[in-house]
Design a protein that fits this description.
The complex is a heterodimer of chains A (111) and B (112). With 111 residues, chain A is mainly β. Helix content of chain A is 0%, strand content 59%. Classes of the chains: A mainly beta (111), B mainly beta (112).
C-alpha cells in the first residue's frame, strides 16, 4: 500500500460544482501539503498544515479550502470549481519540512 | 515571481553519457536544495539533496553541485540510463524548511 494515498485518482466535474480531494498517509508525519502541477509552471503550493490545528495558505490558495481532519488526513476542497482549476493535484507529507513524500496525484478536469 | 528557475524545459542525452540538469534561484534565504524525479502518472519522488554548507553531494550515479555565489545548482547523472527518462524538479527551502519552492521542471529523455 502507498504511504500517501489520494482519492480520487481522476475526476471530471462541471463548472460551479463543489469537489473534495482526499489525502491520507501512513508515514506518521505531522506536516502535510497540497500542490498543483500545471504545464510549464511546475509544482505550486496551495495549502499546508503542521498539525490538526495549524493551517497555512500557500502561494495559490484563492478558490481552495482545506480541512485537516486528523494527523493522517488532509482534504482539499474547491467550493465552486472553475475551468482554470483543471490541473494535476498532489498531496505530500514531510517529517522535517525538507524532503516531502508525494501521493500519486489526482487529475482534475473542470468542464 | 519564480524564485526557483529551470530554464531548460527539455534535455535529450544518449545512453551512457552524462546528463546535466540546471537550476537557478533568486532567494538568498534558501539553504537547502533538493531534486525530485517524476514519471508520468506518478507523484514526484525524492532523489538527492544538498545543504548550503556543502558544495557537492553524491549518491551513486547522481551528484548535485551547489554554487552559492551564483545561486545555481546542477544535477549530474553519470552514466545516463533509459530508466532515467523523467521530469526532474529542483526545489528549495529556507531556514527550518517549512515548505518547498519548486522549479518548473526539465524533461530528460535518455535515448538508446
Amino acid at each position: 500500500d502507498a504511504d500517501v494515498t489520494q482519492t480520487p485518482r481522476n475526476r471530471i466535474t462541471k463548472t460551479g460544482k463543489r469537489i473534495m480531494l482526499e489525502c491520507s498517509q501512513t508515514k506518521g508525519h505531522d506536516r502535510m501539503y497540497w500542490y498543483r502541477q500545471d504545464p510549464g509552471l511546475g509544482l505550486r503550493l496551495i495549502y499546508y498544515s503542521f498539525d490538526v490545528k495549524d493551517i497555512n495558505k500557500g502561494e495559490i490558495s484563492d478558490g481552495y479550502s482545506v480541512s485537516r481532519q486528523a494527523q493522517a488526513k488532509f482534504s482539499l476542497s474547491l467550493e465552486s470549481a472553475i475551468p482554470n482549476q483543471t490541473a494535476l493535484y498532489f498531496c505530500a507529507t514531510s517529517r522535517t519540512g525538507r524532503a516531502a513524500f508525494f501521493g500519486q496525484g489526482t487529475r482534475l478536469t473542470v468542464v | 515571481d519564480q524564485q526557483v528557475k529551470q530554464n531548460s524545459p527539455s534535455l535529450s542525452v544518449q545512453e551512457g553519457r552524462i546528463s546535466i540538469l540546471n537550476c537557478d534561484y533568486t532567494n538568498s534565504m534558501f539553504d537547502y536544495f533538493l531534486w525530485y524525479k517524476k514519471y508520468p502518472a506518478e507523484g514526484p519522488t525524492f532523489l538527492i539533496s544538498i545543504s548550503s554548507i556543502k558544495d557537492k553531494n553524491e549518491d551513486g550515479r547522481f551528484t548535485v553541485f551547489l554554487n552559492k555565489s551564483a545561486k545555481h545548482l546542477s544535477l549530474h547523472i553519470v552514466p545516463s540510463q533509459p530508466g532515467d527518462s523523467a521530469v526532474y524538479f529542483c526545489a528549495a527551502s529556507a531556514g527550518g524548511g517549512n515548505k518547498l519552492t519548486f522549479g518548473t521542471g526539465t524533461q530528460l529523455k535518455v535515448e538508446l
